[in-house]
Amino acid sequence: MKRRLGLTCAAALANMVMISACQNMPGPFAPPVQRQPLADFRSYGMSAIVSMSDENAKEHFVQDITSLEASTWRWTGKRPTVRVRMRSGEHLRYIIDFALVEATLQVTGPVTISFLVNNRVLDRARYDRAGPQHFEKPVPAGWVTAGQDVTVGAEIDKLWVSPDNGAKLGIILVRMGLTQ
Amino acid sequence: MRQAAAALFGAGFTVAACYAAGALLIDQLRVALRRDERIPLAFVLGAACLHLVIFVILALRIAYWPVLAGALAGTVAAALGTGAWRGLRTPSGKTVAPLSRTLQVVFGSCAGVFAIVYLANAWAPEVSPDGSGYHLSLVARDLRVHGFEPIPNEFYAMLSAGVEMLFVPAFAIGRHSAAALVHFAFTVALALAILAYGRRLGKPWAGAAGSLLTFASPVVGASGSAAYVDVATAAIVFGVFYWAEIWDEHKSEPNGLRLLIPVGLLAGYAYAAKYTAFPIAIYGLGFVAWRSKRLRPVLLVAGCAAIMAGPWIARNWIWYQNPLAPFGNWIFRNPYVHIIFEQDYGEFLRHYGMPSLRPLVLEATVRGGYVYGIIGPAFLLVPIALIALRYPAGRRLLLAGTLMFSTYFVNIGARFLIPCLPFFSLALGLALGEAAPLLAAVMLFHAVASWPPVLNRYVNAKCWRLVRFPYQAALRITPQENFLRENSYGYDVARLIEAKVPAGEKVLAMSGIPDSYTSREILVSFHSAANQALSDTVNMGWSIELQPTMERVFQFPERKARRMRVVQTAQAEHPEQWNVHELRFFYRGKELARRLDWKLRAWPNPWEVQMAFDNSVATRWRSGEVASPGMYLDADFGREESVDEVLLITSSDFILIRLQLESMNPIGAWEKVADNPRQVAIPLPKDLRRMATYEMHARGVHYLLIYDSNYGAQDFAGDPEAWGLKVIGRGEDAWLYQTIW
User: Fold this and answer.
1) Which of B261, B501, B584, B707 has its CA 20 to 30 A from that of B549?
2) How far is B276 from chain A (nearest CA, A)?
3) Cα B619 → chain centroid
4) What average pLDDT does range A156-175 have in this prediction?
5) pTM to 2 decimals?
6) Residue B726, SS3 per DSSP
7) What integer pLDDT is reported at residue A87 of this predicted model?
8) If you measure CA to CA, which chain B residue comes closest to A20?
9) Which residues in A lie closer than 8 A to residue B722 (C-beta atoms)?
């Protein structure tokens, strides 16, 4: 009697396990959202903007950018320049975010900044007020070759010279580079 | 110093509650125990009970600090209030002879010194790989969300976590070190229990030798002073044995049956602590059946074991569709763990990269480079333990030890020998029990050979062992942050992720990190089927073998079909899976549009079938197991369609795979349409790398962690932009990227 009961229990358990295992199988699926060819994606653009807070920012510096002053910005010299590489030379835009300081502007007066791509002047702008500034402009086709290094920079016409140690300071740089 | 005090308090409070719970149960059972055996047995038994309480708290998602503290305090108060704490209502066990002076000196001095080293390591900030990894990251996650939640992206979360349940309140109070100290308490309890058992047998030298051989074993020290669970498991396993012995002694008494309650509870708790400890339940059931020759005692043990193990089995069955998760996936198929992963991982654990298992004995006792630790050269004497077969207790010890050893070859890591050690150590002690000087010599030899500076002289450099005496870090004289940065590989990366990745975001990582030190979810590439699929997609960007470089085309006379499938007909060899990036149907050169009423099926791995129909060659359906005949990809068009060509986009790494196209005829039977598809090499799709990271983005994963040692690391670092990635941080030797979508 006990043996029969044991066998029945074992069979029931095995049955339960098998049924449970089979129940794991899902029903059929409908086709998912179809991915579009990547070229059609406009939400995405290549970007090579060097933020001063980037861990690897220094690897992009070419000249005239000092060590990190705060978590997001650095002082520059006369011609801050970074080196980036783009996988496409088309539809690029020059971008720079920086700030001018009241104390230095009072000494230098209004400054003119030239914006450079591969040492070619993209544009110039005159600034006479302190505070954060943003400049952005399309880069003409042919200025940048895909897959090759490109230098992106700015040139400040007048620098502030420290009366204490003679240090020459330009602007407060936050980020600079090219985007698509 | 506050951190040190919090850790000590968190652990002490938890340990006290464990002891209190055990004392309350022993009080109810009216068991006569000596004080020296009552303390460790009550602690371990109470741990089983408390684990269930915390399981319920987490299941109800009420794991708030006051609830956890209340549960601990209530248990301690109940034990104090009823007198159970001091065992006032239970008779004392029969007295045994006091330990001899020599034994006290030999055992006390050796064990005491090791205990101090272990305490300092446990109390110091947690740096062990698994302790600061999944053991505590899952505990921290439970506490963040105040309860359990399914974690389908982490196979470690599917393991039972009976000991980690005790880490929960300890961690809530004293963070990582408190959890490690709880495990240290189990280490001490195990040593005390072994010593007490020897005294119970009237063989104090055998007990002392067994205790010290286990306690001073290098791998026991490394694991037992970290937030691991191996030594706790050994203590629970030995508890089953000990309680079974107590029951055997008292089984003829009127209340003898109730002594089986601890046997059953601990047998179930052993499974809840670590799957590989389940043989002790077999031992317990078999021993009770043999000695009682009745069904009722066996059912009582089984029922009590089910109370402890059942919740974990039920959790896995409900959440992961697999009561044995993360194992047994070929029986309980599920979308969370690929069968081939289980096979590969299991295969690795069976050899740990050892070319041959022949030197395993030396590896596990002396070298430890492959199996991550050693149990100590003294265990080369284990064959002598066979002499203990002449004693009934020796036979039982060797039987239990052999049963626990039976699962060792599933995972040959030295840690997995720990549950056997109490049995073999005691049996060795019994075998030499009549020769106290010999046992003293063995104990001293083992203590010297296991002493960390001595270990350094003969073990492999990779052998996991205690290498420092961090008392300053334990007391936080050395700041915790400094100690972790110097001694925990991956700690910097965890903190980098905490700083750079916003809360709620996930990070795909190709290697594990000590993720208990970050609150961000880390998706380790091989820790789940979904993670594997995603990392497969990402790796496709640089790995030629994975890339969609081949078209396999079936061309045939136009035919009407409502349902078609591609069948794999050959038996491949490990590790060849069947992979399909895209499956497309054509009529007169124009692809059939994939309408929403199509029904897609696959066997095996039906859950990922959509990856072959998503119009992205950066994703692919994979069989998830070695390709075998009968595997298929099936498309039901929902209506009759004219078709004259079927095309699969695949990688080029098909070796034995053979394909056949079939169509369902009007009576519902499959008939062959074509086989041997034409193979055409196709150019690598442009922007495959960015397509891969787009898939990450589409799945809500925006961060990627790549160590310099990971395959493909140079490809990512060389041109992040080509990947649609941006570097946002560097820690130790890893880059942290963000997708730029």
Assistant:
1) B707
2) 21
3) 30
4) 90
5) 0.85
6) strand
7) 67
8) B332
9) 87
